[in-house]
Amino acid sequence: MLKREDNERLVRVGPGTVGGEFMRRYWQPAVLSSELPEPDGPPVRVRLLAEDLIAFRDTAGTVALVDAYCPHRRAPLFYGRNEECGLRCVYHGWKFDRAGNCVDMPSEPPGTPLQAKVKLRAYPTCERGGVVWTYMGPEDKRPPEPDFEWLRAPPTHQFVSKTFEHCNYLQAMEGGLDTAHSSFLHDNRLGDTVALRSRDRAPRIAVEPTDYGYRYSSTRSADEANEYVRVYHFVMPNQQIRAMTTAPSGERAEVPKIDGHVWVPIDDEHCWVYNWAYGYDENAPLTPAFIEAIETFAGRGPDDLIPGTFKLKRNLENDFMIDRELQKTSTYTGITGLNTQDMALQEGMGPIVDRSREFLGSSDRAIVTMRRLMLEAIRAVEAGDAPRGVNPEVARDIRAHDGYVPRGGDWHTLFADELKARW
Amino acid sequence: MLKREDNERLVRVGPGTVGGEFMRRYWQPAVLSSELPEPDGPPVRVRLLAEDLIAFRDTAGTVALVDAYCPHRRAPLFYGRNEECGLRCVYHGWKFDRAGNCVDMPSEPPGTPLQAKVKLRAYPTCERGGVVWTYMGPEDKRPPEPDFEWLRAPPTHQFVSKTFEHCNYLQAMEGGLDTAHSSFLHDNRLGDTVALRSRDRAPRIAVEPTDYGYRYSSTRSADEANEYVRVYHFVMPNQQIRAMTTAPSGERAEVPKIDGHVWVPIDDEHCWVYNWAYGYDENAPLTPAFIEAIETFAGRGPDDLIPGTFKLKRNLENDFMIDRELQKTSTYTGITGLNTQDMALQEGMGPIVDRSREFLGSSDRAIVTMRRLMLEAIRAVEAGDAPRGVNPEVARDIRAHDGYVPRGGDWHTLFADELKARW
Amino acid sequence: MLKREDNERLVRVGPGTVGGEFMRRYWQPAVLSSELPEPDGPPVRVRLLAEDLIAFRDTAGTVALVDAYCPHRRAPLFYGRNEECGLRCVYHGWKFDRAGNCVDMPSEPPGTPLQAKVKLRAYPTCERGGVVWTYMGPEDKRPPEPDFEWLRAPPTHQFVSKTFEHCNYLQAMEGGLDTAHSSFLHDNRLGDTVALRSRDRAPRIAVEPTDYGYRYSSTRSADEANEYVRVYHFVMPNQQIRAMTTAPSGERAEVPKIDGHVWVPIDDEHCWVYNWAYGYDENAPLTPAFIEAIETFAGRGPDDLIPGTFKLKRNLENDFMIDRELQKTSTYTGITGLNTQDMALQEGMGPIVDRSREFLGSSDRAIVTMRRLMLEAIRAVEAGDAPRGVNPEVARDIRAHDGYVPRGGDWHTLFADELKARW
Q1: Closest to A351 in 3D by CA, of A164, A165, A162, A177
Q2: Which of A23, A142, B1, B296 is most buried when burial is the number of CB atoms within 10 A of its CB?
Q3: ipTM of this complex > 0.90?
Q4: pTM
Q5: Nearest CA to CA, how far is B392 from chain A (Å)?
């Protein structure tokens, strides 16, 4: 349960809101690199933190991220021409470079002083791990560029995609941080008591705050001798890192990988889910066939998206194509696609969930802690201080892991090596 | 004409509004029984009085009507599993019975005290006449269950359907109570002066308030010797009962029947129209062919609905497929379907009509009285008193009738027997 | 740049707004005559200055423009029957003539005093130049009927169409008055330095206020000996008049014509663009083939509209079918259709542009003057005075012109004859 007022502080992300100012202190994913495949290609609309922007890759190959409207008479720059290191407004030909300077103003007499005065709002970008990142906060608070291990993994071992979600980023992220639900929502083999998650549906959750957010573990009984432990990270303000390295048998997975999500607010009622993964093992790259398989399993394979969009064909308008017979007989939800199941629950809550009407249990510990850290960080920003985790250095060397631990053993010791980044 | 403030009192039906509290003192239709055909079948979304609810038929065959969101973290119960006398949320497996008790909480440690504390809002239901009824008011004010004659008629003689309407329930109901419009809106044989309604287009209306609402009559000249009288009932707060027992010739109809509507607020801008009918004559059941014929005549036959919905194919978006040539030459409106004609007018007013801009005439007497009784009843609820007609007993034995009355005769005497329920 | 408050004064047009009262002092186009092709034909919905109205051509052939709702119980008159010099509401048969008098009230007893009391709001109309005009202001301020030259040109030489636009009328009109943009937005032959507009992209603009609004000129270098001058008119409150009489070569065009637009507010976020043209030369009528060619060039030819509407197939929802390859190689925008290019820019600004965030230059002089005159006129209306240009007499005799002027020459003298109406 959250006071209504605290809920508002967390979920509102537009310019001038406290939650929005907080989110603007961190580098955020703006677009996939693949959306801007070539220099001087078509500009792309980007809505981020309730601001309408345009991204374009200029002649030098650098991505610009600028206000969606020309400062002259507010013409839409989406229709602009991406020419010779700048975007030219097609209304009167004013041209701006990626820093927002007006580099040509042909509708005015040569030498007009107006040209030096007019600026197009432009945000800095950097490109890492297949993602164009941007920083939308005050210039004097700009932190170093993002440096997570998944951004450093070799291209052969790395993968990223994104999905549109029609709800506030916070309830999407809460679904991601929540570990207990996997025993229910994602139970796709009803009655199979062999699966780890089905054998112990009330995992014990321990949360350890860190400089970057927190590390947390879920512990389930595996067999008489062992427990199955997953160690995850919540990286402020909107990322989760987790591992898929152990097969249900307790053996190492064939292609062990780390994966995670970044939940990026489009505005108060919509978000982008960036889905990333990288191979753990130098000798096991993520092949295209493997990537297609995991994306399809997640529900966002090549056949699952509405062409030309990042939206699922199975969506809120068609009740995620729930199959009630399947739900009765074979899977818990009757909904196909692991993350489609998540999305059904998250979007089905309505665009902004009213947290003042919740009843939280012990399985919600990770979520409760996340909210507390976020509210603290918002207060820090209001007080003029740096919020937790703003320096990417603090999350540079972390990795997630999952595996078997003999009863009585301590994963802190046993997993110590595996929890350190190697790329 | 109604003061703007009184209009607001009548049309707003959400929780906490005076009109909403008033409507909540009566049993209301929630769904058709046929929408929940089997125990443990798929749950159904129900929006009623601006509340989002879920109905499901449990293993025992009883219909539950509960909040649409799980009290844990507000996950949508529409995606829930209807299992063994309860609905299980697919997020974390919490399960609730039809009374709203949490009967399983598998994501928490066994014996957690949380389980007894958490309640899902649940409304009582009863099932009569092919309709699931619910009571959404304070428990200590709950009246006895509905007991109209149409609910007691044998299944062979009874029929009920429902239609979605995109406007406030009050303007839909006003269209139903209004008797004068049938001479115009429903004139489907232009120039035919034989039809009763065409011969006398300014019926005299008399309204007699009763314990359940009012009884009213419309009287038209039929021929030199006779008048044609229809006696109807308005049953508080949202039902009309009327008769179709007399053929235009003055003879008894082949299949004499009573029918009516209940106009149930979905929210301020939408309503359900329940359309019911029952045979008057023990020897004349309502056969499927007869039902199909009357539903088709009304405009909601098997071919008139958008499949999978209760919405008309002829609707506001396509101007009810008005045929202007037909309107010029053959029917008054050019719109096909008796109740489709009603709906065109009612929806065409906009979602909530502004009654402060009306000019009412003598033909509006029934409507004026209805508004007065409704406003009185709202005041009664505000004062802590029981509103008119809240005890179904008072409308138990009424029936509607229509027929010829010799000039100078009194229908009160002549129709006395026919106006008493027999089923 | 405009103060936010002044922007609001200009863009809001509903009843009771200062901008709306101002617009109501002038005759405005309501529908095309061709939308009401025959007496007693189907009524047409008209939304104008945020009022919902119905137009119908009565038995006498005169167009009525009345409130969209019956004064009785607010039934929609769109479904009404257009009968014998009046529109009859199909709810209870009340019938109104084009002046708004109730001429029949059959649902009430004969001789009811209600009939004389009830009025349907009705606006006066007149029909000229293929357009039905209406006056929606106070009766005692009604000006003489519109009398522009294009309304007097013979039918063989005259043409008018209309297009729906999804934005406030003011930003659409600003696009029309703006002359500098034609060198960019409408540059459909990239790199062609022969075209007049491409050779000199920073035209000098001179604005001369007049009784009807203003006359303005744009002057571009043509060749060593000549300048190319276009002389336009802005006619208060929402019309532009301009000429296309000179071919790029400097010769007179084969079919010299005057054309223009009237931008009529539907409501704050939508407008109609009336597109008119008339032949300048008695011997060069506007043939159907010529009209089809110019309309197609403008982007609203027979194949460009969504059938049954005045909406473009190339529209905001499909990014005006922008072709980025075409934009890179051949035309400035990649958008096909001259006025479609305008519409892309105007609608792409959002429904109401925020003028407090502009940076205006010298090329915006005509727009700045227009805003100033409009704000002055609004103040005049508030003060009880007549706004500029309200008497059509003052714009009766004007004409636009374009042509070559030898350097050092004065177009005022050289064009004097051509700038006077002849029809």
Answers
A1: A165
A2: A23
A3: yes
A4: 0.95
A5: 35
